[in-house]
Amino acid sequence: MLQGLRIPGKTVPTARDVYREVIGRKVQWLIPQRKYQKGKDRPGVLVCPQCHAISTQKRWFLDEACYERLRNAPGVRLVTCPGCQRVERQIYEGDVRLQSPILLKNKVQALAIIHHEEDKARQTNPISRLASVEDRGDEIVVLTTTRWLGERIGKAFHKAFKGTLDLQHMPYEKFVRVRWRR
């Protein structure tokens, strides 16, 4: 079957091409590939007035001393950063649900782990944010702006309290569901 399949410009078919030939082209319609929009190219120095993130050469970073110097400097534009835009537009890439009776007794420690993981993630990627943290007694529901932050929170709880951790990545989507139980 592989010998009969020839794609112009490719010498060896990919696994996806073979899968299409075996199952049929209808599979492509079930989960369409998504086209992601690129942000506008904004040259110069940009500063976010909400979270104090700074962008130079298309790279966002956090530096409070640099923010204090730049916020009133001439030529610096005040722009809402992508992380703040995701929170405003309610665009979430991580859904974390933490369930355990242990959370009733250790609520302060659990919330400290969540915020600590956010602080660590924001040092390397200022777009990583907690969009919401909802306390429902023995369950905590967290929405994050990046899927990596959701995974970090789930892995931190698994490391601290053991239990079972389930990571579900959605196909062709930038989204993760994290379920931790004990």
Keywords for this structure?
182 residues, single chain, five-stranded mixed beta sheet, 2 domains, four-stranded mixed beta sheet, alpha+beta
Give a written overview of the molecule.
- The chain folds into 2 domains: 45-80, no CATH class; 87-181.
- With 182 residues, it is α+β, with helices and mostly antiparallel strands.
- The model has no long low-confidence stretch (mean pLDDT 84).
- The protein contains 7 helices and 9 strands.
- 20% of the residues are buried.
- The longest helix is centred in the middle third of the chain and has 18 residues, at 107-124.
Write down the overall mean pLDDT: 84
Outline the low-pLDDT stretches.
Answer: none
Element-by-element helix/strand order: HHEEEHEHEHHEEHEE
Strand order of the largest sheet: 6-7-5-9-8
Decide which structural class fits the backbone. alpha+beta
Gross morphology: flat
Which bin fits the share of residues in helices? 25-40%
Number of domains: 2
- Beta-strand content estimate: 15-25%
Distance between the termini: 48 Å
Number of helices: 7
- Major sheet summary line: 5 strands, mixed
* Radius of gyration over C-alpha positions, nearest whole angstrom: 22 Å
Give the beta-strand count: 9
Summarize the structure.
The chain is of the alpha+beta class and 182 residues long. The protein has two domains: 45-80, no CATH class; 87-181. It contains seven helices and nine strands; from the N terminus they run ααβββαβαβααββαββ.
